[in-house]
Amino acid sequence: MSMTYTAKVAPAALALLTSLLLAPTRVHAQNVTVKGSDTMVLLGQKWAEVYMQKNSGAKIQVTGGGSGTGIAALTNGTTDIAESSRPMKPQEVTATEGRDGGKVKEQPVALDALSIYVGKSNPLEEISLPQLRKIYTGAIGNWKEVGGADAPINLYSRENNSGTYVFFKEHVLQNDDFDSSAQTLPGTAAVVNAVAKDANGIGYGGIAFAEGVKRLKVKKDDLAPAVEGTLENAQSGRYGLSRELYFYFFPGKNGTADQFAAWTISPEGQKVVEDVGYYPLPKAK
Amino acid sequence: MTAARSAVGDAGGTSKPVIVFSAERRRRAQAAERVFGWIVRLAAAAAILSIVLIFVFVTREALPLLWQTPGAGHEGDAVTWSNLVGPTQYPDRPSRYVWQPVSMIAKYNLAPLVTGTLKTTLVAILLAAPLAILAAILTSEFAPRWVSQIVKPTIELLAGIPSVVLGFFALMVLATWLQDLLGVRYRLNALTAGVGLGLAVIPIIYTVAEDALAAVPRSYREASYALGANRWETALRIVVPAALPGIFAGVALGFGRAVGETMIVLMASGNAALTSWSITDSVRTLSATIAAELGEVVFGGPHYRVLFLLGVLLFVFTFAVNLAGELTVRRLKRTLGGRS
Which of B165, B191, B273, B282 has the fewest beta carbons closer than 10 A? Predict the structure, then answer.
């Protein structure tokens, strides 16, 4: 008796199970997932919040994890938009080709002036890029060598899935290796928190995060003038560490994602950029 | 149900009325027993199979490292034995052991990660084992009943604290305390992470050791008292030696937990891949490296495979510790003749 019962129920149960397993993979056009840069996660969430207020049908989820994580997710098809604080590498672009999504689109959405943080009690006001390079590769280990007090320099860095890490490595270290003593922390907020607690610490990260720490003026080389990371200096490129923040997505794959991405560079979207603490793109673009 | 109860009654030899079942009912009971036997066997097999499968999967992802040759233009990605074990040579600074997988020339040296794991684990065990064992001796041998009834559940409650909470505590509170106390350069270091880990390991060692002590037969203690020994002598020279296999098993379990624990070290160790023997240097452990980097790597690339290799290392490491623990426990049991 029980055998026949099982025989009747099994196919039905199996069908139910398969439908349950398959259901979440069906993409609803109104849902957009945004994933990537921890530098941009605040910005992305604010954008999503404002956009969803205006467009009640849209549902946008924003998570961090790092630019590399976002780009990997875009390639693997688990996110609609990848936020990245660095340009995609050629290998990464190649990896997205041959997928059903078509050709990946790069869209700059905001400007950032990558900031160098030190503790508030640090007497130092400015630093040059060559000095930074020596500090982060371990050639300089004491603040007095760059004009500060006689104290060891404690390096704070980001995990290597971070776009900020890659940007810093390319533009400041010129692809040299970080000193092994650099502590890697998850997220710019963690770096700022660590530097705020460490009088001898130095860290780097997006401009929107500098709470409780001092931002140094940056000199492009030892003889160049010290430049503050302001809007004008970031837009004109006079600030040595200004960079673009990007959205990557496959146009035409998700209509809502396309509209959302286009909206972020509208005047309304760029207003949010300023509210969060980053800089809008230059008007000429 | 009734059948089982009457069977127990028979075995106990009490004078309950004996119920004689029909052949049909007995046959059905036997069939049910066979079914349950198979279910239990299946469950056991599934547990073992899942462990074997996990090991096979992790190893399969790591193994291609051994014969993989980099494609044209990817020489920098090559993973070789000298890359995994030997120091990196720099033109402009002394050679050292470097873990920097995201780089023009990726560096996958295992030395900083292995020493990092060993350092945090040793700190954790050296802190947790004495505390947990002494606490177990206290609650099982010396403390009045009401004290044990407070201490025991409290320590066991510690096991229920999520490791992310312990990590947060180590990161925000413990790090500041230890830095103020010792005046060390790095706020986040192997010592901070090790103490945080110790908090996670204490309840594991305590629970197993306590059970082992409680399982020492009462007759041992009575015999000891009868021979004129006092409570201290009985506890330290009779009960603890008899429970030693169990205590040892607790330490081995705690060791395994400390090696594999991820969240606490990820948050409180500073994650700098330094190779040094100082416990106040920042460290990066195997488990934290996997957690921090696996989300980003290119599927099937060299970095991905090296992370799986770290997984294999961790697996083999904990397996070896547990195996050594199990073998020692067996030998101790044989020589001591204790029943724990």
Answer: B165
Which residues make Cβ contacts (< 8 Å) with residue B70, sequence separation at least 6? B77, B78, B302
Chain A residues touching residue B99 (CB < 8 angstroms): 180
Q: Are residues B281 and B321 in the same domain?
A: yes
**Residue B322: domain span:** 110-335
pLDDT of residue A1: 40
Domain boundary among B81, B100, B119: B100
Quick one: B9 and B140 in the same domain?
no
> Do B96 and B234 fall into the same domain?
no
Domain tally for chain B? 3
pLDDT in tens, chain A (285 residues): 444 444 555 555 545 445 444 444 444 457 899 998 888 888 999 999 999 998 888 889 998 888 888 898 888 888 999 999 889 888 888 888 866 667 889 999 999 888 999 999 999 999 999 999 999 998 998 999 998 889 999 999 988 878 888 889 988 998 888 998 899 888 888 899 889 988 899 999 888 887 889 999 999 888 888 888 888 888 888 888 888 999 999 988 888 899 999 999 999 999 999 888 888 988 754
Q: Are residues B157 and B179 in the same domain?
A: yes
Q: In this structure, are B137 and B260 located in the same domain?
A: yes
- Residues B93 and B115 grouped into a single domain: no
Across the interface, whether the CB atoms of B272 and A76 are under 8 A apart is answered no
Cβ distance B282 to A181 less than 8 Å, yes or no, reads: yes
Residues in A whose CB is inside 8 Å of some CB of B read 65-66, 68-69, 72, 76, 91, 95, 137-139, 152, 154-155, 159-161, 165-166, 169, 175, 177-178, 180-186, 194, 197-198, 200
- CB atoms inside a 10 Å sphere around CB B143: 16
> Per-residue b/e over A161-195, b at no fewer than 16 CB within 10 Å?
bbbbbbbbbebbbeebbbbbbbbbbbbbbbbbbbb
Which tokens in the block code for residue A90? 């050629």
pTM of the model: 0.75
DSSP reduced 3-state for A228: coil
- Closest CA–CA distance from residue A206 to any residue of chain B (Å): 20
Give ipTM to 2 decimals: 0.73
Residue B105 placed within a domain? no
Interface probe, candidates B95, B103, B179, chain A, greatest A C-beta count within 10 A: B103
Residue of B nearest to A66 (CA): B296
Angle between helix A41-54 and A267-276 (nearest 10): 140
Instruction: Tell me whether residue B137 is in a domain.
Output: yes
For B252-286, write each residue's pLDDT tens digit: 989 999 999 999 999 899 889 888 888 888 999 99
Asked if the structure places residue B246 within a domain, the reply is yes
Residue B18 lies in a domain: yes
Radius of gyration, CA atoms only, chain A: 23
Domain containing B303 — which CATH number? 1.10.3720.10
Whole-Å CA distances, A72 to A37, A66, A93: 12, 10, 10
